[in-house]
Amino acid sequence: MNNRQTAPPEQASLGAQIVTLACTLAIQAVATAATLAFPILAPAIPGVQPAAVGVFLAVVYFGAMIGSVIGSAVVTGLGPVRASQAALLLQALALALLSVDNANLRLLAALLCGLGYGPITPASSQILARTTPAARMGIAFSLKQTGVPLGGLLTGAALPFIATFFSWKTGLAGLAVLAAAVSLVSSPLRTLDAEATGRLVISTTWYRPIAEVLAHPQLRSMAVVSLLFSACQLSVSGYLMAFLHREAGMGLAQAGVIYAVAQGAGIAGRLLWGHLADRIGSSRRVLMAVCVLMALSCVATGSFATHWGIEALCVVSAVFGATAIGWNGVFLGELARLAPRGAVASVTGGALFFTYFGVVVGPPAFGYLAERTSSLGFAYVALGVVPCIALALLCLPDRQMRRRAVEKPGCSQ
Questions:
Q1: Which of 3, 153, 265, 329 has its CA 20 to 30 A from that of 77?
Q2: 185-213 b/e (C-beta count within 10 Å ≥ 16 → b)
Q3: What is the three-class DSSP state of 289?
C-alpha cells in the first residue's frame, strides 16, 4: 500500500493554489479547443458537409463517455497530472490525423479526441480537490470550468483567421503543437501524482464509477441533473445562432453579437455561481436557482422578436448563457463534496458519463422537435420543461432529509 500523502488543501500556499488552478484552466481550455477545431474549420475544408460535422461531434462525445468512465483507472494508475498530460497528447495525435485530410481517418481522429477529452475533468477535479480548501471549492471549480467556453471563444476567433491567411491544416497543426506544449508545461505539478499506483489497469470492473454514482441517491440525482443541463447547454451553443438568424429575423452580424453575449455570459456565470455557492455554503441551492432562471430563459428565448430591441435581447441571452452554459463548475464542486474521500476522480468520471450522454442525445432531440414543429422557437419554449425536471430532482434529497429528521426527533443526545 502506498503511504505517501500530499499536503492537505488547507496547508497549500495561495501561490501554489493559483499556479495549480491556472494549469488546470489551460488544460481544460486546450482540450475543449481540440474538440471544437474540426466543426469550426469545417467550412474551410473541401468536401465537408454539415452532416459530417454532426457525426464527428457524436463520435467525439461517445469517446468522451468512454474516456470519462475509464478516467478513474487512468488517474489512479498515472496520477491526475500525468493522466491530463497523456490526454492532451492523445488529442494532439487526433489533430495531426485530421490535418492529413483523409476522410477515412476522420472518425478515428474524432474517437481519439473524445477518449482524450473524457479523463480531463476527472483528473483536474482530483487535482483541485487535493489543493483547494473547502471554503474556496466552488469558485475554484468554476474558474477551472471557464476553460470550456474560453476554449470555444479563442478557437472560434483564432482558427478561422489562421485558415484565411495560411490554411486550415496550419490551424490544426498549430493547435496540436499547443496541446503538446501545455502538456509539457504542466510537468512541475507531477508532485501531485505521489499516490499513483504506477500501473494502468482497466479491469472488467470498468463500470464501477457508474455503479458508484447509481448506488448513491444524491450522486444519482446529480448525474441526471447534469444530463438534463448538458442537453440545454448544447441546444444553446448549437442552435441559437440559427434561430436568431432564420426565425427571429436578425442579420448575421446582429445575431453574432447576441450569440457572443450568451457565450461570454457563460464564462461570467461560472464565476458568479461558484462565488455564490461559497458565500451561502450550498452548491445545491445555487443549482436550484439556476434551474428557475434557465427555464424562464428558455421560454423568453423562444419568444424572441426583433421589436424587443437589442438591449432586451442581450439581457435574455446573457441570462440564458449564464445558466445553460455556466452551471458546470458548481456541479463539479458539489460532486467533489458528495464523493467519498479519495474517490473524487471516480465519482466525477461516473457522473460525466451521464453528462456526455446528454450532449449526445439532447441536441438531436431538440433538432428533431424543431423539425417536426417547423419552429426552433417552439423547441426552445418546450426546452423549458427540462430544467424544471432538474429542479424537482434537486429538491428531492432535501425533502428526504427533512422527512428523516421528523421521523427521528429524539435522536440528538
A1: 329
A2: ebeebeebbebbeeeeeeeeeeebbbebb
A3: helix
Buried b / exposed e over 110-133, threshold 16 CB at 10 Å, is bbbbbbbbbbbbbbbbbbbbbbbe
User: Which residue, among 145, 122, 134, has the nearest Cα to 28 in the 3D structure?
Assistant: 145
Contacts of 233 (CB under 8 A, 6+ apart): 324, 325, 327, 359
d(CA 123, CA 271): 21
Say which residue the cell 417552439 belongs to. Answer: 378
The one-digit pLDDT tens for each residue of the chain (413 residues) are 344 444 455 455 666 677 777 888 888 889 988 988 887 787 778 877 656 776 787 788 888 888 877 777 777 777 888 888 889 999 999 999 998 878 888 889 999 999 999 888 878 877 777 777 766 766 777 777 778 778 877 777 788 778 888 888 999 999 999 999 999 988 887 776 666 655 655 555 667 778 778 888 888 888 999 999 988 887 777 677 778 777 777 776 677 678 778 878 888 888 888 888 888 888 889 999 999 999 999 999 888 876 777 888 889 989 998 999 888 878 888 887 887 776 777 787 788 888 888 888 887 788 778 878 888 889 899 999 999 999 999 887 655 544 544 444 443 33
Q: What is the pTM of this model?
A: 0.67
Rounded to an integer, what distance in angstroms lies between the CA atom of residue 39 and that of residue 243?
18
DSSP per-residue string spanning 80-131: HHHHHHHHHHHHHHHHHHHTT--HHHHHHHHHHHHHHHTTHHHHHHHHHHHH
- Grid look-up 491567411 returns 165
Q: With contact defined as beta carbons under 8 Å apart, do 91 and 112 qualify? A: yes
- C-alpha grid cell for residue 70? 475509464
